[in-house]
Amino acid sequence: MGKIILTGDRPTGKLHIGHYVGSLRNRIKLQNAGDYDKYYIMVADAQALTDNFDNPKKIRDNVIEVVLDYLSVGIDPKKVIIFIQSEVSALSELTCYYLNLVTLSRLLRNPTVKSEIAMRGFDNTVPSGFLNYPVSQTADITAFKANCIPVGDDQLPMIEQANEIVRKFNSIYGDVLVESEALLPENEFERRVPGIDGKAKMSKSLNNAIFLADTKEEVARKVMNMYTDPNHIKVSDPGKVEGNIVFLYLDIFAKDEHFEKYLPDYKNIDELKNKYREGGLGDVTIKKFLISILEEEFAPIREKRKYYETHIDEVYKIIEEGTKKAIEDANATLREVKNAIGINYFADDNFCKEIRSKYMQG
Ligand code: ATP
Ligand code: MG
To answer: Is the pLDDT of residue 362 over 70?
Structure first.
């Protein structure tokens, strides 16, 4: 079987550098390599509602923002099916059958869900829809028979749970569903980019993000406020590189040619780190360097966003057509699933024969 890719994002806000590094860059690489049979990107609005059910406007408004972000980073709608989750009703039906295959205690053990429950202060008030979102994610993945999922490492427990459900389904009802594998960035920091506040994960919900749509000035302001080494007060003080967010971002983005262009006193990141450790290198210098690099990387993305913002009808068409295709493909899997369980009464001639033979003979 060939490669089928599926990924997505919750429309809870615009996409940020964490998405770009942890997932979008991989998605573009995959798209351009062309080595796949089908490629889907989903705007997970139904999933976003599980913890934003009381603020549906936020979700509705951000659907288009997320799609604009996709198009601006270079996702090509000719190669990738972009669709809206809630429009594909087969996904909800599949979720309903999969829920029988997972226990409450298993759902409560999911480490990502656990930390998200804590982060949102849900305690005993967690909506069951939220607790169940990994099951709905299983529906998203399996509906398209996706086997390759480019994501950040917070999604690993979801893939594991999805595969457990797939195995259970197949062992009870027959081989219909396909197991999937996460595709993570190679570098550990790229799998979970920290926020500008130094918190473990940059996240739309944590207010610690640099967004792809931020203006040049906003990016500069955010970098200038970035967490560095609190004990590195004077330029001459020796500084710590570990846990210093500016260096972490430089590790992700800085290439040797950036030094030549913007900071020719140093050849590479190792020289810069040594100087910082030694003392004599100020935070403003490293922050300005990072600002230049980010500007080089994100200015073209911002430009592309502007194009699509002024051609919004094109964007609408792209998601409308993508969603139509996704509905067709998910319906095909739903039919297979219902056939396998035997809940296909009117599509199955045998059902009619069975009831006839049972009652007409007697
Ligand atoms: P929310 O706060 O609403 O959950 P989020 O910022 O966590 O938003 P999601 O839409 O949940 O973003 O995640 C979409 C994809 O981006 C997932 O594959 C996730 O692993 C990846 N991702 C999100 N944040 C980061 C990050 N800081 N570093 C690396 N990958 C990330
Ligand atoms: Mg998230």
So the answer is: no
Cβ density class 86-120: b for 16+ within 10 Å, e for less: bbbebbebbbebbbebbeeeebeebebbeebbeee
Task: Assign domain 4-193+312-354 one CATH number from 3.40.190.10, 1.50.10.10, 3.40.50.620, 3.30.559.10.
Answer: 3.40.50.620
Instruction: At 361, give phi and psi (nearest 5°).
Output: -70, -45
Asked if residue 44 has pLDDT above 90, the reply is: yes
What residues have CB less than 8 Å from 142, skipping those under 6 apart?
A: 94, 162, 165, 166, 177, 178, 180, 333
**Every domain range in the chain assigned CATH 3.40.50.620:** 4-193+312-354
User: How many Cβ atoms sit within 10 Å of the Cβ of residue 235?
Assistant: 13
Percent of the chain with pLDDT over 90: 84
Q: Residue 23: helix, strand or coil by DSSP?
A: helix
Q: Which ligand is nearest to the CA of 182?
A: 1
Top-confidence residue, 289 or 235? 289
Residue with tokens 């006193």: 265
**For residue 54, what pLDDT is reported?**
95
Spatial contact of 94 and 337, defined as CB atoms under 8 Å apart: yes
pLDDT confidence band for 361 (50 / 70 / 90): low
Give me the CATH code for the 216-308 domain, please.
1.10.240.10
Whether 355 contacts 362, CB under 8 Å: no
Q: Is 120 helix (H, G, I), strand (E, B) or coil?
A: coil
Pocket perturbation via mutation, ligand 1, pick of 154, 155, 186, 205 by most ligand atoms within 8 A of CB:
154
Ligand nearest to the CA of 203: 1
The atom number, within ligand 1, closest to the CA of 21 reads: 29
Domain(s) labelled CATH 1.10.240.10 in the chain stretch across 216-308
pLDDT at 190 over 90: no
- Using the atom order of ligand 1, give the atom closest to the CA of residue 24: 16
